[in-house]
Amino acid sequence: MATAMFTDCSTSTTAAAARFLPLNRDAVVLHSRRSIPLRFGPINPSLFRTTGTKCHASASPSVLPAAMAAETSAKIIDGKSIAKQIRDEISAEISRMKDNIGVVPGLAVILVGDRKDSATYVRNKKKACESVGINSYEVHLPEDSTEQEVLKHISGFNDDPSVHGILVQLPLPSHMNEQNILNSVCIEKDVDGFHPLNIGRLAMCGREPLFVPCTPKGCIELLHRYGVPIEGKRAVVIGRSNIVGTPAALLLQREDATVSVVHSRTKNPEVITRQADIIISAVGQPNMVRGSWIKPGAVVIDVGINPVEDAKSARGYRLVGDVCHKEACKTASAVTPVPGGVGPMTIAMLLSNTLTSAKRMHNFK
User: Where is the signal peptide (predicted)?
Assistant: First the structure.
């Protein structure tokens, strides 16, 4: 039997450090067992699309659950299109907030060092803020900055009433204590959802986190938007990182799924994964999850974003997920593409969390 080699923290989950919208205008989305009302629009059936000849769109999202068992080719869960719809809805809500109380949400991002990937993530977040009308504030510190310098900037943003969300871009330089820095972010502005009090509340029944980590929140929202039933289903999360795997498992539990977590010490991971109705993979190993790992009709959410060599590409590489997409399309009922699946949802959920923070601080309904 093949042995799976993987880590629990992928480059994609780091990028995610780098959000829940309803199906109907007056509906609610459950990021926990309590519901929070939002004003967003209905799903657009055109969000189902195809990728070549391997995966085919069929009926509208409203009939997805009934079709799952019968279909032998996967529907594509188009995160890019959903994220755009979400951004449009957030933009409209920000305009309503500005018109009514004169407040514009603000997001502050702290970047330490000169990693090109981190700089790209921060730049993309800034563009996303601009696209919906969120004010963005950025601090870029050199690699050799002290931990105290970072903490000083966080303290300033904590006290700034125009800032409603604070994001520290990960990874931090090795000489800094990541836990100390993340813990210093005011919990009311922890739009990344990484503060231990937010994670602790997420883990406890009857407690509500102020924010949920963006990438796992986006994964659950994709399932909601496509009408995928979660309650009573068997779910497997591959990877146990603090950023994606662990909070994703907690969110699935809150949705009353029966959850197993596959990690680097799990024996026969393919056997466990093959029992799942829903798979969320976030381990950072290209094409690790093969078609033989997937139960016919399962729904697959692929968080991985992994570069692999490709001489035909101008960049010399292409991006693939943790899941072998071509094989998954032959077995799963629905699957996210890479890129264009979970990635756009992460930033959309960050914007959603920032808006939520601003509305909460100003008691705007």
Answer: none
Cα separation values, 191 from 10, 132, 234, 323, Å: 21, 16, 29, 29
Contact 267, 2 (CB under 8 A): no
Annotated catalytic residue, options 8, 78, 192, 322:
192
256 a catalytic residue: no
Cβ contact 164:360 at 8 Å: no
Q: What is the DSSP string of 132-171?
A: HT-EEEEEEE-TT--HHHHHHHHHHHHH-TT--EEEEPSS
List 169, 233, 277, 285, catalytic entry: 169
Q: How far apart are CA 15 and CA 19, in angstroms?
A: 15
Report the alpha-carbon angle 72-325-30, nearest 5: 80
Out of 8, 78, 125, 190, pick the active-site residue.
125
What CA–CA distance (Å, rounded) separates 11 from 61?
31
Exposure of 296 in the CB half-sphere (CA atoms within 13 A): 6
What pTM value is reported for the model? 0.81
Contact 14, 63 (CB under 8 A): no
Q: Tokens at residue 202, please?
A: 């997420």
CA–CA distance, 359 with 365 (Å, rounded to integer): 7
Query: What domains lie within the chain, and their CATH numbers?
Result: 102-194 (3.40.50.10860), 213-343 (3.40.50.720)
pLDDT tens digits, one per residue of 61-94: 433 444 444 445 899 999 999 999 999 999 999 9
Quick: pLDDT tens for 263-308. 999 999 999 999 999 999 999 999 999 999 999 999 999 999 999 9
Structure token pair of residue 199: 């994670």
CA dist 73 and 67 (Å) reads: 11
